[in-house]
Write a structure and sequence with these properties.
This protein is of the alpha/beta class and 260 residues long. The chain has a single domain, classed as Rossmann fold (3-Layer(aba) Sandwich), CATH 3.40.50.150. Helices cover 36% and strands 18% of the residues. Strands 1, 2, 3, 4, 5, 6, 7, 8, 9 and 10 form a ten-stranded mixed beta sheet that branches. β1 and β2 form a beta hairpin. The longest helix has 16 residues. The chain starts with a strand and ends with a helix.
């Protein structure tokens, strides 16, 4: 752990995801919500490029590079996510905690088995519907998969969402090649945690999970190994920390109305 930033209710680590999880004291997380690096089913760089991971447009790949730093094979990603899932159990608040990982559809069978092998239960597979197909021919990519697991019997905190979460795809001008909409992360956080609960993201990227967590009145711990993305996450989460807490305002209003 070469650097730690405390920004309000968020603690951000610059370092290796597995290294931080294995060396830090328990965070007491209610849920892990993360978008780990993708292999898109390829064992070689050429195969990964041809797979058009996550439905990214070719011009986006050319502009942003191929998931900077992601040069793992499918087997490497399986090993990493199983190890992270094992380490997460030591940071979970109790045995009802949950974990959700974004995954390319090609990798679903491999990653589901790897994470199950860590002792987590495969509960469901929500879908992010981007509401419009990407470029290409045939059945063009319009969705991403979210692998949802629990430690024993899960505890849920909202009934507001089905297993299809609809939100427009991100614009080409974004902070990270695979950045997700805040609204999608907010939905995952709302279902899997209560206000004040802690959300863990060991593959923080540019900090979208943290922005959503802070906006939802949760605490947050994030880990990112890339200095550029880490600094972006610090900036975005600091800005989110200065915004009005709409979630908390709504809860306060409900309490006030109940007292009238």
């Amino acid at each position: 752990m070469s650097r730690i930033e405390q920004i309000g209710d968020a603690t951000l680590y610059l370092g290796d995801a597995l290294g931080v999880l294995q060396s830090a004291k328990s965070f007491g997380a209610r849920a892990m919500v993360s978008d780990p690096p993708y292999c898109s089913g390829g064992f070689t760089e050429a195969a990964k490029r041809s797979a058009k991971g996550q439905g990214l447009r070719s011009e986006t790949l050319q502009e942003k590079d191929w998931f900077g730093g992601d040069n793992m094979t499918s087997a490497g990603l399986q090993w990493l996510l199983r190890a992270v899932a094992v380490a997460y159990k030591g940071h979970a608040a109790d045995d009802g905690c949950t974990a959700s990982f974004f995954a390319d559809w090609r990798m679903v069978p491999l990653l589901a088995m790897a994470i199950e092998a860590a002792g987590l239960r495969f509960q469901s597979m929500p879908i992010w519907d981007k509401q419009a197909p990407g470029l290409g021919t045939g059945f063009r990519a319009q969705h991403e998969c979210i692998l949802h697991f629990s430690i024993n019997t899960p505890r849920y905190h909202s009934k507001s969402y089905g297993n299809v979460i609809r939100a427009p795809r991100m614009p080409s001008e974004r902070d990270h090649p695979t950045e997700k909409p805040v609204s999608v992360m907010s939905a995952l956080i709302d279902v899997q945690s209560e206000p004040g609960g802690l959300i863990l993201d060991p593959f923080m990227g540019s900090g979208t999970t943290g922005v959503a967590a802070i906006g939802m009145g949760r605490r947050f711990v994030g880990v990112e190994h890339d200095l550029v993305h880490f600094d972006t996450a610090c900036r975005r989460i600091e800005a989110a920390n200065k915004q009005p807490r709409l979630f908390e305002d709504a809860a306060l209003k409900a309490v006030q109305e109940a007292l009238l």
